[in-house]
């Protein structure tokens, strides 16, 4: 066996000056033994260097190097931040916006569909110019009303 390999996790730990438990953790995290079960010292040194970098405050960690616990804490913190922004009114759910737009469109549709029923009786026997003026006036009223109506208050998402 060459000098760049050691036979066991215990041998790798001694060669790198770390505990056997540390090497066991590295193996669990992805340090793979060679086909014959030995460990490459260069790979072991690389894992030791990564571990040392993780221990230094203020150093950036790679996505691959993050543990499940770290990703969980980051996700939990992100969720808490989202909830805080939502409670302050700085963040709105897409479902709430979709519901608001749907309500507004249905309101416009209702006004436009009732237009004919409301205006038709008023136009009987009038000239074309009077009919056009009446239609324009009624349409202006509908659009003005829609523009000044406050949007319906969004319902709380469950």
Question: Care to describe what's here?
Answer:
The protein has a two-stranded antiparallel sheet with strand order 1-2. Helices cover 66% and strands 3% of the residues. α1 packs across α2. The protein has 3 domains: 1-60, no CATH class; 63-91; 94-148, no CATH class. The chain has 158 residues and is mainly alpha-helical. It has 6 helices and 2 strands; from the N terminus they run βααβαααα. The longest helix is centred in the C-terminal third of the chain and has 30 residues, at 94-123. It has helices spanning 9-16, 20-29, 41-55, 68-87, 94-123, 128-148, and strands at 5-6, 39-40.
Summed up, the helix count is 6
Strand content: under 5%
The whole-number mean of residue pLDDT values reads 83
Rg from alpha-carbon coordinates: 35 Å
Give the neighbour order of strands across the main sheet. Answer: 1-2
- The share of residues in helices is 55-70%
Largest sheet: 2 strands, antiparallel
Count of discrete domains: 3
Overall spatial form: rod-shaped
Given helix and strand content, the structural type is: mainly alpha
Q: Report how far apart the termini are.
A: 64 Å
Topology (elements, then pairings):
Layout: E1 5-6, H1 9-16, H2 20-29, E2 39-40, H3 41-55, H4 68-87, H5 94-123, H6 128-148
Antiparallel strand pairs: 1-2
Helix pairs in contact: 1-2, 5-6
Brief account:
With 158 residues, this protein is mostly helical. The protein contains six helices and two strands, in the order E-H-H-E-H-H-H-H. The chain has three domains: 1-60, no CATH class; 63-91; 94-148, no CATH class.
């Amino acid at each position: 066996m060459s000098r760049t390999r050691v036979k066991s996790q215990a041998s790798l730990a001694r060669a790198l000056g770390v505990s056997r438990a540390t090497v066991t953790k590295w193996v669990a995290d992805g340090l793979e033994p060679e086909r014959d079960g030995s460990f490459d010292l260069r790979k072991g040194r690389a894992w030791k260097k990564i571990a040392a970098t993780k221990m230094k405050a203020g150093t950036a960690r790679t996505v691959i190097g993050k543990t499940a616990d770290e990703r969980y804490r980051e996700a939990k913190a992100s969720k808490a931040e989202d909830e805080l922004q939502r409670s302050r009114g700085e963040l709105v759910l897409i479902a709430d916006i979709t519901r608001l737009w749907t309500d507004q469109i249905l309101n416009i549709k209702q006004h436009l569909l009732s237009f004919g029923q409301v205006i038709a009786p008023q136009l009987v026997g009038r000239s074309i110019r009077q009919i056009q003026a009446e239609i324009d006036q009624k349409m202006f009223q509908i659009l003005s009303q829609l523009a000044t109506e406050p949007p319906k208050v969004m319902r709380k998402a469950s």
